[in-house]
């Protein structure tokens, strides 16, 4: 269903599902009728509510008649039926064919948006912990290198490590990195 479809069309397409669903029992149909009657008496009058709550008529027949009646009443009546259904039974409401179609359409739009956003903003797929661990490692090496003085002598292992670390850098960056490491000796 698209966003332009009204509640009457949704009720028309969901009627068969609602009438065949085993979860739409007598108690639930009575609660729906009572809510529509008490809160919206312009939708269901007392006489109509009594007719739809008549226990001598099978529940499926009463439900089918109620849905037809609401469809004839118009858009607002259908909308209030959906609200009552949502209030009383979230699981049935969420499994309606019109709701399932809406979710599928929304999910496909959302999935397309997410892939576009991921392609645009994600530089790597390793996540923030990888960045933090690399940053912490580099800070640790820098601290060892600059503050590793013990009586005027720098730690010898940091110079070797800096030469080995420069292997994966570009040529210009490697030259700067190695010269900077040698100046510190």
TrEMBL record:
Keywords: Disulfide bond, Endoplasmic reticulum, Membrane, Mitochondrion, Transmembrane, Transmembrane helix. The keyword Ion transport does not apply. Its main location: endoplasmic reticulum. It is a single-pass membrane protein. GO terms for cellular component: endoplasmic reticulum membrane; mitochondrial membrane. It is found in: Endoplasmic reticulum membrane; Mitochondrion membrane. Associates with BCL10 by CARD-CARD interaction. The chain crosses the membrane at residues 129-148. CDD domains: CARD_BinCARD_like. InterPro entries: CARD19 (IPR043574), CARD_BinCARD (IPR042146), DEATH-like_dom_sf (IPR011029). It comes from the Eukaryota. This is Caspase recruitment domain-containing protein 19.
